Amino acid sequence: MSSKAAPKPAPYIPDENDVVSDILRLVISMAPAFGIALEAQAALAEKVNAEARDRWGGDRSYIQRVGGRSQRNESIKREHRAGERVPYLARKYQLTERRIIQILEA
Known about the structure:
Blueprint: H1 19-30, H2 38-56, H3 68-81, H4 86-93, H5 97-105
Helix pairs in contact: 1-2, 4-5
């Protein structure tokens, strides 16, 4: 019997319009800084790709911003306490007046 070495995994090629691919691209670009070998990077990308698509495939996912909305909402509340009116805040933040009121009541 001849002993063949396992073929090297093909490099992961991301699709620029796919959120899973974009996240994997970021992870792979950061992997060398964590000492992850090229072969392990490809294996990790394929595993994460399969798991993410199995869990989330076909769903519309929401990715929460870190600090974005809560900072905006705090700014809205602060400005309202300082005397700004709801219609002005709605225009400034490109939200409906109803949404501004919801934020103020939260």
